[in-house]
Specification:
Layout: E1 2-6, H1 31-40, E2 45-49, H2 58-71, E3 74-78, H3 91-106, E4 111-114, H4 126-147, E5 150-154, H5 161-171, E6 176-181, H6 192-199, E7 203-207, E8 210-211, E9 226-227, H7 236-245, E10 251-254, H8 267-283
Parallel strand pairs: 1-2, 1-10, 2-3, 3-4, 4-5, 5-6, 6-7
Antiparallel strand pairs: 8-9
Length: 285
Amino acid sequence: MKPAIDSYCYHRYFGESYAGLQSDPGARMTVWDFLERAGRHGVEGVSIESCFLPPIDDELLAGLRDQLDAHGFERVWAWGHPDGLRSGTDRRAARDLVRHIGYAKEIGASVMRIVGGSRRTRPKSWKTHKRRLARALADPLAAAQDQGVVLAIENHIDMLSDELVDLVTSIHSPWLGVCLDTGNNLRLFEDPVAVAQALAPFARATHVKDIGVLRGNPREFAFWPSVPLGRGLVDLAAVLDALRKAAYAGLLAVEVDFLHPDYAADEDAAVAESLKHLRSLLSRA
């Protein structure tokens, strides 16, 4: 398993701040800045959030591949923030997903993280949800097979762990796996270790995240801020053990989203602390 960074850690610097929860930092970052920063952190790979890229063309993709190769980074192409396939109801998004599989291939990514939906788009019935997602994934999975890119669908606060297992095992394609987010399902009141144990056999990518708490309503996203790894509620040693037992050998991509106010002034310090903790855990194996 390889320490890595997801570019979403710096989402405020790419122009996305959570309304009412985060301030604009007053500075901007490009994907090239991110790659340089990842290099300084000494990681082995990166996950690139395509939503933060400039208009995608052949020149951009070639430049990305060259820079990723120059840094020696293993890479994951990330598609779908924030609502992805809108739980299987957005045909335009499904067509966009197919285009992005080609982009992933162009930059040399063999894995592409995708989003099925969000808490906003989840229907009440899992039966309906599953049927819609399976239908929406049919054409993308055909394209994934054609391009040789595995799609890793994230537990994105839209599915419980048993639902995601049900989806992946029912479709039963070698081109569909899971992007295991180590913290998201805590926001759905599931035990992160139990989630990891359920999803690790299907993991093809990860978001390694720790979660703390704030005052308020635990049914609201803002109650569950992310924190530097090792400072929250997620037993990351047990999560990594589940991944080892499943023979996962891919990227461990550190991610922070709504960073706890105690750390919010400096995402880079939170990333550095997280990587230090992650490397410490890996060294104990």
